[in-house]
Amino acid sequence: MTVVVGLTELPLERVRRGKVRDVYAVDDGRLLLVASDRVSAFDVVMNELVPHKGAVLTQITAWWLRQFEGDLAHHMLSADAGEIVNEVPALAPHRAMLEGRAMLCRRTEVFPVECVVRGYISGSAWKEYKASGTLAGEKLPPGMVESDRFATPVFSPATKAETGHDENITIAQMRKELGPATAAELERLSRHVYSRGRDIAATRGIIIADTKFEFGHVGGKIILIDEVLTPDSSRFWPADQYEPGKTQPSFDKQPLRDWLEAEKKAGRWDGNAPPPVLPDEVVTETSRRYLNAFERITGAPLAIAGAE
Predict the structure, then answer these.
(1) pLDDT digits 0-9 by tens, 124-141
(2) Nearby residues of 41 by Cβ (< 8 Å), 6 or more positions away
């Protein structure tokens, strides 16, 4: 049986609700992150839920963090529902809902920047480059085409926006915000995690075109937090279909975005809330893309009920 989860309230204080995740306080040192099957596109949250999406985001993050054990500090304590319920007994009645999609984490002070690493030029970076040859106002090499690979990955920080799009900023602005030493360490860590992830994904036939990381600090130590190298925080492209000079197919919610774009072009949707009703086939294909991304990256299918 397929379980689709929009999340119900838990017996903990909810400290934040994002487009996809709810964040709960467990105690002074721990948080519970729970990813729903909600999906957004063009900054609008759809009414329909995408089966298994929340579990894919949580478990692919957990898989990556296990690859980095001993290499860098991160916030994950457990992504196993049984272990989480043992740690927080009040959650026992909600175990089925938490299965696969909950992560018990260290609580940190979060740095107010998104640490973006771009191995290829796409998305907002391509849009700015096409208009002015720059990224966040800084010059990039001339003559690039859409989806070109950078000779050296570009570190491109952004502000964290509660609503709407994040805004690209310069490294100089980041240094001013956080201090030179902290900014340099966040860049070093971001480049390191991207490089490791890119190399692992390449062995699975996937290009990680770009990605964004978040970091926090606790006890004077910087640690990696939130999503890591997921289809929502990264652009995953199939390597065997890569062709510079155009938009690439991707392992994410591309079927949803494509359908919504068609609705906008046809004048049936203005791009704002409320969203249109999604056809079943769009929801199904979007779910399939997320599950495929998980299996391609980890080498195994998602091990929760109904995800076969």
Answers:
(1) 899 999 999 998 888 999
(2) 253, 256, 257, 260
Q: Count Cβ neighbours within 10 Å for each residue of 176-194 and write b for 16 or more, e otherwise.
A: eebeeebbeebbebbbebb
List, by residue range, all CATH 3.30.470.20 domains of the chain.
Answer: 110-241
**CATH 3.30.200.20 domain position(s) in the chain:** 1-107
- Write the class of the CATH domain 110-241: alpha beta
| pTM summary value | 0.92
Longest CA–CA separation in the chain, Å: 58
Helix (H, G, I), strand (E, B) or coil at 40: strand
Cis peptide before 274 (omega within 30 of 0): yes
Strand partners, 223: 216
Secondary structure of residue 110 in the 3-state scheme: strand
Architecture of the domain made up of 1-107: 2-Layer Sandwich (3.30)
Residues 6+ apart with CB under 8 A from 265: none
**Measured CA distances, 295 to 56, 59, 138 (Å):** 10, 11, 38
What pLDDT does residue 1 have? 31
Question: What's the rounded Cα separation, in Å, for the pair 198 and 56?
Answer: 19
